[in-house]
Amino acid sequence: MKLAGKVALVTGGGRGIGRGVVEVLVREGARVAIAEADRVVWTANQYWTKEIAGYQAAKALAAELVAQGAEVIAIEADVTKVAEVKAMVAATLRKWGRLDILVNAAGVITVNPVEALTEDEWDSIMDTNVKGTFLCCQVVLAQMKQQGGGRIVNFASIAGKEGAPGLPHYCASKFAVVGFTNSLAKEVARDNISVNAVCPGVVPTQMWVLLRRAYALPGESEDESYRRTVERLIPQGVDQTAADMGEAVLFLVTNDHITGQALNVDGGARLF
Ligand SMILES: NC(=O)c1ccc[n+]([C@@H]2O[C@H](COP(=O)([O-])OP(=O)(O)OC[C@H]3O[C@@H](n4cnc5c(N)ncnc54)[C@H](O)[C@@H]3O)[C@@H](O)[C@H]2O)c1
Q1: What is the position in ligand 1's atom list of the atom closest to the CA of 109?
Q2: Per-residue pLDDT tens for 110-133?
């Protein structure tokens, strides 16, 4: 087991890609805190509601993994709120006394062209995807430095490498995550803290429940819309899995000399 003795904190880890990451980290022997929110500030997200029930999902997943013998806790935290981010890190440290790995997988999306985009949508996407990532990284640094190192992985996207119509706010947020990741990596490179991003292509989570509906052509079913979009975006012609993302995170957190990178896990969609 590659992560025996390590402690990881995964935001957005109750469902979707974050859940895939939690499962791989647990399989490799890490103790894992899953941070999720039940209620968020905006309705502008892939759940179309402020009541996103992420903490409920985190508690259910933690119970499932504990029953299998893993050491896992669920923590309620909205990553856009600094007090909750600080409390989330404090709760992890109270439980296990250390923090080796931070994975920022909490994220939100909506689809709208610039002229139709509302201020709420902009704020929701930027606050969660960018400010949330910044706050979580900022709050763990002191502990990682004191321990002599750490590993951080932020979820960006192929939308953080190239623009897309209907996603100006989401693309802006993911380009920001890539730039933030590279900057922080350089700041803490001498502290034995690596900071990388993973850029997924298409993973069939709640985000694609929203996207397949938004992209459906007149007369096309949501499933047809999804298959057509995967065909269009992904050279391999197939989607990726949450487990693929977990394996990419494992690769990055077990490597000593890869930092500042934004790794595409996208079936060939992007080069840079
Ligand atoms: N699914 C894809 O194809 C895809 C592609 C590229 C990038 N991504 C990125 O991967 C990450 C995970 O997305 P996903 O597809 O698994 O979506 P998802 O909706 O399944 O998971 C996102 C999780 O984030 C949580 N969350 C949202 N706002 C939060 C907040 N303020 N505080 C705490 N938790 C919050 C939600 O409760 C949810 O469980 C996101 O950053 C997303 O942008 C996904």
Answers
A1: 43
A2: 999 999 999 999 999 999 999 999
Pocket test for ligand 1, best of 129, 203, 232 (most atoms within 8 A of CB): 203
At 138, is the pLDDT very low, low, confident or very high (cuts 50, 70, 90)?
A: very high
- CA–centroid distance, residue 118 to ligand 1 (Å): 20
The CATH homologous superfamily of the domain defined by 7-201+241-265: NAD(P)-binding Rossmann-like Domain (3.40.50.720)
- Is 55 labeled as catalytic in the residue annotation? no
Please give the model's pTM, rounded to 2 decimal places. 0.99
**Rounded Cα–Cα distance for residues 184 and 163 (Å):** 23
Give CATH 3.40.50.720 domain extents, the chain: 7-201+241-265
